[in-house]
Every structure is written in C-alpha cells, then in structure tokens.
Amino acid sequence: MPGKILIIEDDPYVRRFYERLFKDSTYEVSIATGGLDGLAMANKLHPDLLFVDILMPEMDGLTVLKRLKEDPTTSDINVIMLTNIDDRTTIDQAIKLGAGGFFVKSSVTPESFKKAIDDYISAKGV
Amino acid sequence: MDRKLRIIKPILSHLKGLAKVSKDSGPTPSADNLMGYILGLITNRSEISDEVIELIRAGKLDRKDRIKAYLSIYLELEEFILKNKPPVVKDVYTSKSLREDVKNNVDIKKLDLPLKFLFVAEKEREAYVYLLGISRLMEYINENSGFKHLAIITKQLTAGTILEQAGITPDGLDLEKIDITDGNLFSLLKKFYHALYDEILKSQGERATLDLINDIYRDLKVNYESDVAVKFLEFQPLGVMNSERLKLLSREEMEKEIQERTIFLEETKQQLEEKLNIIADQNRKLEETKKALLNVLEDAKHLEETLKQEKANVERKVIESTRELNEEQGRLQASINSLNIGLIMVDTDCNVLALNIAAKKILDPDKFIDLSGALAQIPGSIRMKLNIEFIEHYFEGSLDLKSHIRQCLDEKKTVEVRDFNYRNRFLDILIHPILALIDYKNIHGEVVGAVVMLEDKTEEKLLNRSRDEFFSIASHELRTPLTAIRGNTALIKEQYAVKFKDEKDFWEMVEDIHDASIHLIDIVNDFLDVSRIEQGKITLRMESFRPEEVIRKVLEDMRSTAEEKHLYLRFDADDAVLTEVNADKERVSQVIYNLIGNGLKFTEKGGVSVMLTKMADKVEVKITDTGRGISAINQNLLFRKFQQAGDSIYTRDTTKGTGLGLYISRLLIERMGGELHLEGSEENKGSVFVFTLPVSSSILQK
After folding, report:
1. Is the pTM of this model over 0.90?
2. ipTM, interface predicted TM-score of the complex
3. What are phi and psi of B399, to 5 degrees?
C-alpha cells in the first residue's frame, strides 16, 4: 500500500544503503541529509512515517523530534528514532518527546526494518 | 508706875511711829511688839538704858538691819532678865520659861525669821535652821539680782516639790502652808539651799559666796545656840566651810571620820588593785593575742609565698598548655590544609573552628576568602568568632547549610547533599558529626561539633560523563559504518543472489564480510554493555512480565539459525506458563539470546532445549545443549571477561563470539535479583546453564 516515508540520516554510506534498500519499495521513500533539511521536507511531504538519526551535526535528532511535535502541522507524524545511540536515558528522552519507536541501526536487519515499516504504516493507515 | 509709863509710852509710841516712818520694806509690828513686851518685863529700866537707846536707834534702821539689831538687843535683854529677879524684873525666869512667856503674849507667827527662830518649837527647829540659811541666800539674791530674778529662780528650783506652795518673800520662804514636820522636807530644803548656793556661786563667784556663808555662819554662832551653827555647817555643800567643820568635830568624831575615810581609801585602794589586776590580765591577754596575730601573720606570709609559687607554676603550665594547644592547632591546620577536599569545622553553635584552603578555593575560587578582611567587616568581632552564616552567604540562599548542620548535630548522623550545583561546579557536601570520646575505649559520647566536607566532583563527573559520552559516541561511530557494511552485504545477498549465483567464491567473500560485520557489531554492543555495567550505568526498567513469552520469542527468532544447522529447539514451560517475574524484559531477552545462542553455536548435533520451572519465590530457566561441552579448566573461567582460557592470553578462539556474553549475562541477571551459573557440563556431551529470576509480587499470580 502506498505510504510516504521520510528518513533523516547524515552519514552518506548509510544514506546510500537506505536508498538501495527502498529502491524497489512500494513506499515513497525520501531521504534528508540533516535536521534542517528534514524539517523542511517533513513540512512539504507530510510523510506517514519519519525516521530520524540522533547524532547529527547542526541539529540533533531529539531537537528535530521536538520541533516536529511542537509544530501543529507536523505533530501527527509518527517519528521513529533510527540511531546507533542506545543508552536508556536517550531512549527515555525520545519517548518523552513523543517518539513512536526506537531502532538501533546496526542491530536491525533490512528485513526486520522493512517489516517494521509495514507494521507501522498498516497500523496508521487503516 | 508713872515714871515707868513715862519712859515706856514714848518709846512704844515711838516704836509705833517708827513703824510707819521707816523707809525700807515696811513696818515690823510683830518685832516691835516683841521688843515692847520684853521691855515690859523689866521693871527697873535704868539698868538697861543702853539697850533702850540702841532700841530707839534701831527703829530708824532699814528693816534688815533693824531686825538684826532687835535680835541682838533682845538677847541682851533676855540675858538681863535671866540674870535678875524681882523687883528688877517682873518674875524669875529660865530661858525656857521666858520664851514660853513671850510666846504666850506675842504673836510670833508674823515675826521676821531671825527673831522667830528664837521661839520655834523643838521639832521645828531643824527646818528653821534650813530656813535661816535659805532666807539669807534669798536675801542676798534679792539684793544683787532683784526680786523678780529671785522669784523666777525660786519657782524653777522648787518646781515639782511641795516647796512650790511656799510663799516667796524677799526674806525667804514662807512655809505657813506647808507641814514643817514632814521628813522629806529637810532633803528638799537642803537641795533648795544647795541650788541657791550654786546660783550665787555662778553669779557672784567663789570669793563672794564663801564670804557670805562665813557671814551667815558667824551670825548664827553669835545669835543662837551652838547647835544651830553646827547644823548649818552640816548642810553646806561639800568642800564649803571645811575648816570650820573640822574644828567642830570632836576627837572621837575625827577619829571616826578618819577611820571611815581610811576604810573608804582602803576600799578604793582594793578596787583600784582589782582594776589593776584586771588590766594586767587584759594586758596579758593582749600580749597573747598579739603573739597569736604575729603567728597568723607569719603563716599568712608563708601562704602568700606558697601561693605565689603555685601561681607561677600554674602560669608556667598555662603557657606550656597554650603552646601545646597552638602546636596542635598548627598541626590541625596543616593537616586540613593538605587535604584537597574542602573542610570546615564548626562547633555546636555553628561557629567556624577551622577552615582549610581547599574550602576557600571551592567557595570563592577567584579570590579565596580573606577571613581577616571578612572579620573587619563584622562589627565588634574580636577573635576568630566566625559563624557558618558567613559561609552560607556564599551560597546566596541556595543552600541552607545551617539547618543541615543542625540536623546532623541533632541526629548525630552524617547528612549528605550530593551533586549540589554551585557556580557551575558540582559539589558533594557531607556533614559528619564530631563526637567526643568518653574514654580511651573509643566510646563516643556527646556531639561537640560537626565537620563539613566539600568535594568538587565536577572533574569526576565530567570524566564520567565524557567516559560515558566516549563510549556512547564511540559505539555510535563504530556502529554507523558497520550499519552500511552489514546492510549492504545483506542487500547484496538479497538482490544479487540470482545474478551471481554461480560465483561461489564471490558469495563466500560476501558472506564473510557480512558475518564479520555482524561479529563486529556484536563486539561493539558487548563492549558498550560491559563498560556500562562496570560503571553501574545500566538502568534497568523493571516490570512484571511472563518469561515464557520472552523465551518463546527468542526461540522464534533463532529458528532459522537452528534450522540451518539442523538442530532442534525445544521449550517446556510446564506450570510456569503464566508465571510473571519482576525484571527488565529487554535484558532478560538479551540473556536468553546469549545462552540459547551459545548453545546453538557450540552444538553440531542435537539441539537446545529450554525448561522453565516455577519455584517458591522465583522462576528457573534451564538451557541444555548437546554440544561439545566445556572443559574443567574453562569452566572456572566461564563467566569472566573474554572467558576462554589457556596457558597464555594469546590462546583464544575468536570465532566463537566475543567472550563477553556470559560475563554480561551474569551481571545483568544479578542486577535483576537473580542468579546465573553453569549447572554442569561434560565434554562432548553438552552443557546445562541455569538462571533464576524473582517472581513478581503481583496478586494476580497463579
């Protein structure tokens, strides 16, 4: 089923990996390179699902999350943290700020990633 | 008869006439009558012609002189009458009978005293002697000071006595109204006489007074019987007319008087001797007292000496003690200054007893507290009586140090304030009570103060944080490229399986890369875990959940791995299916992954079975594999970091996991209140691992 997905990731290698991963996906996947970029795209696209890394230059993922949730036009977007930071404090912070989930990138296999997306989209869409 | 009458009549009339004519103090009819009568008793007047002439002359005199003359003449006439007999005189008389006769025929009551005296009754004589003396004195006062003065004096001197009622005349007292035979009268009269005497003495002097007394005495001696003058002498004041008195005293009387005086002197001498003895006694006593006092003084001096010495001793001791105290203070100050933890010592009133440099640095890092300067601002402070409130100032109300100290003092326990933010530094503040030692056995007694320790934890915190951050960031940095590696290799496997299905080497290489990346990711995860666990930075999210669920999920995930190796996975939950435990779900999952993973990894044939059993207050999870087992040596090192053992650290099998799994698992299980151990293992037979978790205390427990 169609769905718009936005991924915000600053590492070029990982970014390219995502592109490859979703090349043949049924979802409309857009990838932003940073927080500012991502916010603009979020406003424009209004995706159904948004993945954001935490450790990024210029604007970190938690701030992006906060901004998204503060802005009424984007507050309903489901934001999932997709990061390699995995300490409890950060997770709790993200949850508190309104994140819908938390994935550790390196631990996630492509399959499980895709499956999770399917779950999220179907959960929302229906 | 005619001739008699011829002589008497003119005399009598002359006398009468004189009575009217005399110039001073009026007529003396009674006296005239007396003289006339006594004359009448003499028939032969020619014998007494001298006396008659004197009588005529007397009539011309002043009253006082007249009476005096009459008295003298009367006595002469009386003497004549007594010497003669009829017909010269009318009758034969004795002195007594003559005076009786006169009394019967002449009114003697109104006679002037000198004359009256001749006729007074025996029992009245004594009083009249006094009166004679008194009248002469009163006469004298009247002549010298006037009648008014006499009256005043007499009134004064007789006040309060019966003499008060006496009439006062220039001649004397008129006692007509007074009972003359009253025994008390004489002492009164004597007293009065003495008073008059003193009065005259005062106003006229001794000479004149004595002359007067002598006059009176002579007159009395001349005119009256001898006893009158004697009586007069008797009632003179002491010392007056002494020579006369002595002359009168008979030898016997003199001897008696001498005896009396001697006795008196003897008695006086005795009394004096007694007094002397008493005085001598007292003197002796004084001497003894004096000696005693001298002794006491000696002792006092000794005591003073001793005290001086003692004082010197004490002073020396005080100086020594002070020096010791100063040294102690110095040592204390040096010791606490050498600490790099801030230390403030206070007493029970929160006065600062000691403050080290480190504390100053913490409180005022830019300047260091200059206490002397601070003291200068506190009005009236003399010595270092600095209160903790001053230190509190530095915290600007953000820390109520005083009440924390009070709490410590009251409860006798350490009070902590951790991670206190002060001027962008983090302080740990600990307040310990100082307890005095009751004795050397280290038994602690009452609180005598407190020690406030300020520890700047900022660096440590930063260090920790940065170490934390380091690991987080390091693991993140490591993971990011690994994500790309792993992800891409997975994609390659997925997307190009068909295309390069014949390239066996190629696939092997891709597979190796994929596996290596996974391995590396595992290592990074484990390293991060270990570092966190060892730092105590693991936060467990404890909740109540069913382990049966978690186990099932893990087995589900591991299914493909097991199938690849043709191994079985079995699970038996028995009666513990619904049992809930209180633990961190994710971490329990991690442990189970680790154990089941290990089981599969080290098994070539057979499989891994999991058994979940419920015990009293915990559940037990038993994981059994049919793998190659663990040798005895390795069993000892099983739960250590990099668990594989050998003779050298270089002997390791790096293909089989990181070697940290069991170490982490055990620590996690223990953190969750459980326990993990190797139940048993036999080479080539297999191994059994067991861990327990506390059962949840939920009431819905079955």
Report:
1. no
2. 0.83
3. -135, 120
